[in-house]
Amino acid sequence: MSGVRPLRAGIIAAGRGDRLRNGAAILKPLVPVGGRPLIDHVIDSIGDAGASSVCIIINEDSVAVRDHVSAARRPLTIRWVVESTPSSMHSFLRVLETVADGEDQRPVLISTVDTVAPHGAYRRFVADAEGLHERPSNGEHGASTPAVVLAVTKVTDDEKPLLVKMAGHAVVALGDAAAPSSWATAGYYLVSPVILREADAARRDGVSALRAFFSRLLARGYPIAAVTVPPSIDVDRPADVEAAEDLLKRVAL
What we know:
- By secondary structure, the chain is α/β, with parallel strands linked by helices.
- It has helices at about 20, 40-50, 65-70, 90-100, 120-135, 200-205, 210-220, 240-250; strands at about 5-15, 30-35, 35, 50-60, 75-80, 110, 115, 150-155, 165, 170-175, 185-190, 225-230, 235.
- Helices cover about 30% and strands about 25% of the residues.
């Protein structure tokens, strides 16, 4: 995959982040963690994973994020989607549609902007996830090429973790159907453009949350796999900033 042609990537940064901002004027992607904005941490992680280009979606009130990112010289080609989408699923699909143009069915690395992970975590995830894509598809449970590979980590102090139940690498249940489980999604994924076949129907049916879209894919027979990764922090609340800074200090791969 990335050894043949460069990895493509996307970042979902269109949410308002009201809980994290807590009335402050600063935009969520620009909230500092360890002295650097959230979005810089994610761009660095994606670049370290081998991506040559990244599509970033922001809402129409967040052009300052684009200005910040564009002001720095970066080794990645950056494309922008400026759109106030109604939900996380819509943002996710817009990024994938923008990146996966044409007939190229290579998987795309997509991350939320509020995921803080140790250095090297994304790179190791991509290597392990691409290994699953390279396995022969023989129709056995868990052996077919995954439509989505989830990065999963041990459940932490996340308010609403998306629980994951696995059989080997194969995901067999998500959300409430996976309870009890000690595993939850970490906020980044390797996604095949094949799932765009479900995009229009999901929008028409009123699916909004990304977690609901993943559950829908699983229910419709799309193989979803999981790769375990080191602990990460989903920065949604002011207290999460301190936890993320502590994680970056403590965890080294």
